[in-house]
Amino acid sequence: MNHLNRSALKSQKSYPERIIQFGEGNFLRAFVDWQVHIMNNTLDFNTGVVVVQPIEKGLIDLLAQQDNLYTVYLQGIKNGSPSKDHSVVDCITRCINPYENFDAYLKLAENPEMRFIISNTTESGIAFEPSDKLSSAPPKSYPAKLTSLLYHRYKYFSGDTEKGFIIIPCELIDRNGEKLQQVVLQLCQLWNLEETFVTWIKESCTFCCSLVDRIVTGFPRDTINEITSELGYKDNAVVVGEQFHLWVIEAPDFVAEEFPAHKADLNTLIVKDMTPYRTRKVRILNGSHTALTPVAYLYGIETVGEAISHQVVGKFVKELISEEIVKTIDLPADELNYFANEVIDRFSNPFIEHYVMSISLNSWSKYKARNLPTLLDYLEREQELPKRMVFALAALISFYKGKRDNGEAISLLDEQEILALFENLWNRDYKSESDLTNICRVVLSSKLLWDRDLNEIPNLTKSLSKYLFSIENKGIKEAIEDIL
C-alpha cells in the first residue's frame, strides 16, 4: 500500500502563497487548512498556506515526507445520522522551522501577495515575554516572532500602507486579536521601534478577534488500521475531527470579501461583534457540559453520549438548554435553535467517548463563568429562578462531597482551597434541612467561589436548599424526577 504523496494522489496543484500559518498541529490542519482547501476547490480561492513551526520541535518533517499532504477524517452526526467522510488537504505549500532557517522565515514578509496570518499557539502562546529581543533569530514567543516579521515587511516595503496583514488568531482566549495586538505594541515599545511602524501596525494591519469550535481528536492511534484500509493509502499525518465546525471572526466587511468562506457553505461568520456568539457557545455548549457533569455522574452515567441519550438525564439537559439557557442570549431564535440542535448532535456523537469526569476539572470556576451569568440573566428576564440550573448547582455541591450514592469515591480535581472548603463542609453525612441549608449559605457566600454573596439573590438560598435536601435524602434519581 502506497504512502500519501503528490505522485500517489496524482495531484500537481500549486497555489500562490497568501497565508502564513503559525502552527502545524491537529486543530489548524483539521479546521483552518481544511476550510482553505474547500474554498480553493469551490470558489477558486487559489491560496496556498506556508506553515511556520512556532516551537523548536514539531510535525513539519512528518508533513514534508508526504509532500505536505494529509487526510482530514470527519465523523459524527450529520443531517441527523452518523456519518464519516474524508478529504486530502493539499493547500500547504511548504513548512518552515524558524529555529533552523530564520532567514527563510523573514523572507515570507517580502512576498507582496501575502495577506493573512493565522495562528494557534495554545492559550499561553499570546503572552508578553520581556526577555525577547529583536536581534534574536528567532525570538522565543509567538508575538515576538510576529513582530519581527511585521517589522521586516514594514522596512522591506518602505512603510507601504497597502502591505499590511489581516491577522486572525485562533488561540482559545477571549478577545484574542486585541490581546495579540496589545503584546505586539508592548514589544515595539520594549525594542524602541519607530512610531511610524507603530502607526503602520495600528492602521495597516487588521487584528481580528475570533472564536473557533470543532472537536479534533488528532491521529487515530486506536483505529488507524481500519482507517488506512478504508482510505487505501498510508497517511502518518491523518487527523480526525467531528463533523461540526464554527468560526466566528470579528472583522470589517472587507475581510469577508477577501476571505469568503461563507460563499463555500462553510460555517464561518464574519461579524461586527462576536460577543453574542461567544456567549452562545460558552452558555449552550460549555455551560450545559458543566451542568450535566455532576447530575450525570451522580446518576451513575460515565460519558456525555450516555447522558444525552438517557431518558431522564437527556431530557434534563435538553430542557436546560431550550427552556433556560437559550432564553438568556440575544441572537435570532433560528440561530439559537440551530446551534442548540448542533450541540445535542455533538453530545450524541457515537464516534467520541467523552467521559464526564474528564470535564469535571475546576467545576466551580466553570460554573461561575459559564452558568452563573445564565442564572442571573434568566432571573432578570423571567422574574423567576431557572430551576434546572439551580438544580445543577445543588448537584455540584453534592458532587463535591466526594462520593456517589453507592459510596463510591469521586476523584475531585480542583484548587486545593476549594477541595478543603468542601471537605470541611461535608465532614459528616448531613440529612436535616437546616444542616443542608447552612451548607448552601456557606457555599453561596464564599468569596473563594464567587465575587459576591449569592445569598442576596431572591429565593436562591431557599430553592438551592430544597434541591440539595431532595438529592441527599431521596437520591439523584428521584430528585431529578421532581423537576422534570
Question: Any chance you could write out the topology, listing elements then pairs?
Answer:
Layout: H1 6-9, E1 17-22, H2 26-42, E2 48-52, H3 60-64, E3 70-78, E4 81-89, E5 92-96, H4 102-107, E6 116-119, H5 142-156, E7 166-169, H6 176-190, H7 195-204, E8 206-207, E9 209-213, E10 216-218, H8 224-231, E11 239-241, E12 246-250, H9 253-258, E13 268-271, H10 275-299, H11 304-309, H12 313-325, H13 333-347, H14 363-382, H15 387-399, H16 416-425, H17 433-445, H18 460-474, H19 476-481
Parallel strand pairs: 1-2, 1-6, 2-5, 3-11, 6-7, 7-8, 12-13
Antiparallel strand pairs: 3-4, 9-12, 10-11
Helix pairs in contact: 5-6, 10-12, 10-13, 10-14, 10-15, 14-15, 15-18, 17-18
Q: Given the structure, what is the number of helices?
A: 19
Q: What gap, in angstroms, lies between the N and C termini? A: 55 Å
Task: Give the rounded overall mean pLDDT.
Answer: 95
Give the helix level as a range of percent.
40-55%
The main pleated sheet reads as:
6 strands, parallel
- CA radius of gyration: 25 Å
User: Rough shape?
Assistant: globular
CATH architecture of the largest domain: 3-Layer(aba) Sandwich
**CATH-wise, what's the superfamily of the largest domain?**
NAD(P)-binding Rossmann-like Domain
Count of discrete structural domains = 2
Structural class: alpha/beta
CATH class categorisation of the largest domain = Alpha Beta
Count of extended strands: 13
Uncertain segments: none
- Percent of residues in β-strands: 5-15%
Numbering strands along the chain, what is their spatial order in the largest sheet? 5-2-1-6-7-8
CATH fold-level name of the largest domain: Rossmann fold
